[in-house]
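Minutes, methods subgroup
Present: GH (chair), OT, SY

1. OT presented the first of two proteins processed in the latest run. Sequence and structure tokens recorded below as shown on screen.
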Amino acid sequence: MSAPAGSDFVLRPPVPGDFGWIIHRQATLYTAEYGWDGSFEILIAGLIAKFDPLREQAWIAERNGRIAGSIFLMRGDEPETAKLRLLYVEPDARGCGIGQALVDVCVERARAMGYRRVTLWTNDVLTAARKIYERSGFLRIAAEPHHAFGHDLVSETWLRDLGLKPRSKREQT
């Protein structure tokens, strides 16, 4: 377990039960906060179902013995690109630096694994998360109106270049 110095939370790997909790909490929170429908829960359950713990990584933020947030680092569509997925922080833990710590550990792990860039997909209504991405060096590279989760939204794709030289073919396998 680890956490930034002086913080009142730790970041740890997931244990049995965490993935179900993350699906439940994100679906519940996004419904309460944004009015999103059940299709969001289906989306996140599908993403977590594809999680490969041998090649990908997830972190759980824990505060006072309770889950306070999470993030996933997953393989991207291209060999040298990772995807930051499913960042969330519990409402009572927001403003404590958890979201930033989760994004930071995700980016550092992507760099350590030799990825050259990290992408993420979000929606413009998630303003607090978007501020974290911006502070972390991500740039918005695309925005497109769409209808999802029962609402008209604007989807965004963000990119963070990690400034690494290309990996050899042997390192990519």
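2. SY then presented the second protein from the same run.
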Amino acid sequence: MTPVDDLAFVGDPPLLRPEADIVYVSCLFTWDKAETGRLAQAWHKHYLNVMVSGPAWDNAGHDFVPGLFVGSGVTVTSRGCNNQCPWCLAWKREGKLRETAIHPGNNLIDNNLLQCSKAHLGKVFDMLRQQRQIKLSGGLDSRLLTNSIADDLRSLRIKEMFFGCDTKEAVRPLARAKAMLDGFTMDQLRAYVLLAYDGETILEAEERLEAVWDLGFMPFAQLYQPPDKYIEYSKEWRKLAKNWSRPARTKALHGG
């Protein structure tokens, strides 16, 4: 996801630095905010204007500029989300869903693409039909999938698309979605699976992961991290997440 052009840097200023009127220091995770401040001071030694922002600083994500803070091919066509999932910060930071300008790209990272209007979705799919190796990485809401949308998805050259299955209640709508997604393989069908939220046990998490696998989706396990602190999980939790976040490892565990 990180840009790799000549004006993008990770970490401290290099010895050879480009001329610039302003430097943007972007921070994604809240537990990196202290490091963001240190980096801002380091860059300020060489540049007068240094701006610190990003999701960790509750930036609402206004106009999307391709390639500015994300790599080539990554695009966003909407911001915010109308859901208010307690573990998610998208709706708190960006507010209700709003549609934005559509820039070409093959990796779509909208928070909740399927909440967009039919007209907007049509334009997004038209843009994606011009792309190859398409990734829908933002996470699709299986409750909003329709047969018409499934047909549009089949018209695209999709490499992988992610759905969400963050609670046990999400398994049933995921099964409903799978019934509409015939023709797609498990390599194309992925599912984000949040682990260890709100007192969930390892056994409960493993049962949900197996349910997602049995439906024909490749799980991508993610251990819950709150915004105000970093949880150091046990060896057992880390092993579970590792086994279910690497497709080759997950397939090997199931004899594939």
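Chair's summary of item 2: Residues 1-59 form one domain.
Next meeting: continue with the remaining queue.
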